[in-house]
Each structure stands twice: as C-alpha cells, then as structure tokens.
Amino acid sequence: MSDLMKGDVLDALSKVIHPEDKKDLVSSGKIKDIVISNNDIQIILNVSSPAHHIKSKIESSISETLKKELSEVGSITVNFQPMVTPIGTTQQKEQILDKVKYTIAVASGKGGVGKSTVAVNLAVALGKLGYKVGLLDADIYGPSIPLMLGINEKPKIYQDTKSAKMLPLENYGIKVMSIGFLLDDNAPVIWRGPMASGAVKQFMTDVKWDELDFLIFDLPPGTGDIQLTLVQTIPLSGSVIVTTPQEVSLIDARKGVKMFERVNVPVFGIVENMSYFIAPDTGKKYDIFGYGGGEKLANESDVNFLGGIPIDPRIREGGDKGVPIVFDLPDSEHSKSILAIAENLVKEAEKLGSGGKPKIEISL
Ligand SMILES: Nc1ncnc2c1ncn2[C@@H]1O[C@H](COP(=O)(O)OP(=O)(O)O)[C@@H](O)[C@H]1O
Ligand SMILES: [Mg+2]
Q: What pTM did the predictor assign?
C-alpha cells in the first residue's frame, strides 16, 4: 500500500463543504496545513474558534470524506487555528466582534463632561431594558469604568483548546473590560497613540465577549489623532456624543460629530449631560450651564437629540462609590431620564437593521 500524499488529501478535502459559508474547504483557503505521518493525518484549518456544533460538523464531514476517498487513511485529527496573531507580527486578519449586534461609541469633544458617567449609566439602563450589554473602557489613559462600576478584580483567563482569552468582569449584569483591571492602582499609563489603539484592538479580539446586543465603548475625550484612529479601528454601528449645554463644550462636541462623519459612522444622537439642576427642597429647575445647547447642536448637525440628564450630587456619588444611579435610585427623575435616552438610542440603532456594523477586518 502506497503512502498518502498531500495532494490526495487536498483532493479529498475539496469535497468537504463548510456548513456555514457553503464553500469547499480548499478553494475557500481554509486549509492551513496538512501533516501526514504513517498515513495518520493532521489537518490544520484556518478557521477561528467556530461554535461547537459547527466545529463537530466540520470534523465529522472531514473524517467521513477522507475515509471514503482514501482507503489507506489512518487516524484523522482536525485542529482549528484561529487567525489571531500577535500584534505587529503578520498581516493576517480576523473578523472581530462578530457575536456583538450593535457597537456604540460614547464620545465627547471635551473631558469632564460626564462621558464615562453617561456610558456606565446607559449600559446599566440598556441592561434593565432586557438587553445583553458589554462595556469596553477605551479610555486607555484615564480608565474610570472600574471605579464607576465598583469592580476591583483582575480578569480571569479562559483557555480553550487553541487560544487563551480574557473573560470580561461583570457587575449589574454588564460585562466589562478596562485597562484599569490590568494596572496596579496609581500606575500611570504612559502609552502613546498607537499603543492605545493596539490595546483596544486586543480588548476586542482577545476578550471572550460572546453574544451581546450592545457593546458600549467609552472613548477617550477629544477629537484628535488618537480618537480618530480608534474610531477607524473599532467596527462601530454608531456613536453617541455627550456634551454639556454650555458653548465651550458644544464647540468641541461639534468636532466630535464631524469626526464620526469623516469616518462614516452614524451619530445616533446627542446626550446633554448636566442639563439642569432640580433643587431638592423646592423642586425648582436651574439651568446651571445654560439651556438648550444639546438640542441646538443636534438640530444644526441634523442628528437626533436623545435627551438630557440633570446635574445632581447623587450622580457623582454613584460614580465614586461604584453604584450607578440607574441602579441605586431607579425611580428618581434622573434615572428615568437616562432610561428614556437608552430607549431612544435603541430606536435609532434598530433603524440600521441587523447591527449595521461594518464588517471590518483588522490587520493586527
Ligand atoms: N449629571 C451629573 N451630575 C453630577 N455629577 C456628574 C454628572 N455627570 C458627571 N458627573 C461627575 O463629573 C465628573 C466627570 O464625569 P466623567 O463621567 O468622569 O466625565 P468624562 O468621562 O467626560 O471625563 C465625575 O466626577 C462625575 O461623577
Ligand atoms: Mg471618562
């Protein structure tokens, strides 16, 4: 009996059809390598971690076909080798965040306008509406999500047969990843732009996010090169711009709208934070930072106004003690305003249909 040749195995594998894309394994480039030793065959596939049932379908149809086509075949092993590669080594590509329905960046032109506060409370509000939600802290230089969600642990590592991934941490039903989990307290992040986007890429590819309806990205404040690189790196369905009503904040928020227009990411709407203050004793409304700025910006930019959130010490306290107000005081007017914004956001996102997420293939 003659020894098996790679060509024979390839011929046989060209008869195996991938259950999802319905193409044969050879012509669609899924065969990475074939190792033959004493008629035992090991096949290495260029297929990144498929769902369990897909995996076993592929395995059994390879095994059946090879046994039928090659009578002399010994044992058959199939290995799935995800195409994730260490940053900067090769040009291989992978489809990222394919189990996430909507990816939404929360951005602002200016720091300190409450972007992280809005991102956290929106995430919790979407969770309360029944959606599966993740929050990715992309503010590599000033990660505040761990504190705001009261998470003080290190992520665990999940190892499947081929690759290791970090498991997101969880609180209030939200899955969370932040550079803050990986740094010791007070350790400064001295990374420059390219490293920041590299870290965010890794948070997309090397974290086990699983199925999510919404993955919210808390972006670093500003509209410079770092932010632009990030919004080009992340496959975004859309964005939310946070501003306060005052002119200095609006000028920068306008730049935020422009930045997303430049990269063709829809702006789902404007959120006006610190909109007004309700005096606890009299119930009177005070427009501390002016009135109507967010709505004005939305109108002139032809995007939606998703709503306003009042300024209130309890919102700040909620952030500082790691208990978001939407969770802590669900019946307060403040929480209701945030829930209404979340509902408006869902409506805007759903207008895009099935995710609207561009199929970005990133080179790592
Ligand atoms: N609506 C609000 N009412 C009271 N304090 C707020 C409100 N929004 C944000 N803050 C506080 O303002 C500060 C800056 O908010 P943060 O979310 O960290 O801003 P950013 O992420 O834009 O830098 C935090 O101390 C936060 O608790
Ligand atoms: Mg922040």
A: 0.73
